[in-house]
Amino acid sequence: MITATKLNKAGFGEMNQTVKLLAQTLNAYGISYERVEEAADKFIKTQNSGILTVDEMSQYLAKVIPTAANVEVSLDQVTAAMATLTQAGQPVSRATTYLNRLLVDLIKTSTNVSKVLKEKTGKTFRELQKDGVHLGEIIALVGEAADETNQEFIEMFSSIRAGQGGLGIFVQDGEVFARNLEKISSSSGELNKAFEQMNRFYGIPDFINKLRVALQKLGRGFLEGIKPLINFINTMVDGFLKIDGSLESVGKAIGQLFTVFLAVFTSSIILKGVGLLTKGITTLSTIISSLVVAVPKLATAFGFLSKAAGPIAIVITSLGVLYTKSEAVRKVINSLLDVVVTVFG
Q: What's the pTM value of the predicted model, to 2 decimals?
């Protein structure tokens, strides 16, 4: 009863649920009452390693412990799996369901994953367990078989839930599970350590842990909430990838559309420039007669220039004078400048 009291306080639970968890575990695994603290140590270490509390384990582990004990999957492996699955983002209720379905899939000799193990090792799941091959290593073998046969990992299992359980344990090729298993296997003294911390800090660890669990649940809830958005995006991407023809064809169509747009845009600029140029030419033709009359007079007036600089000097000088003196010339020159700026600027 002392062990249950300590576990209840350090595990943030209800006394009756804590007692029930310990009793179910001892009965399922045939553990003597003298070793009850050993089981409690493992639960505390699981709480510290995963994203769950002893209180949550007391509510949901009954779904999987009887199955695990029946096929000789150790308590260390069960709790390591719970730590690993919750670290991967699964709530405790779902993690226990997935783990139970995974074990059932591995046990049944008629399932695909059971046949895969038999072909790959020559042994059944039970036999591999008896030989000391832990759950993480067994799931890694399934992953290797999936790679060898070019199958998706989850397709190796008979149900989505069993596959989800396998995926959770297969994180980093089973290395996360292996680390958790090692920590839980050497968890002696964890209960007393946690209980002493609770007494020393007068409930502060209780508050901190509850806050930690609350924030973790908030994060999981957020991820659940945005799943419809993620699914919608995935659906859109999948639909795009399944468009009749190749992605190159889609790219070509987009390129052609852009070319048409660019052509229309460029044509509009050119047409605008042509319009301005036409306007300038019309104005120029209107004043040609004025130039014909004006140039001889200017040539007479600035005869010394023609002798000094030649015909080019006459033209430049004449245009300068006309631009200064004639409004019509200014209009023509300004119109031509507008055309240059619009088309080339």
A: 0.60
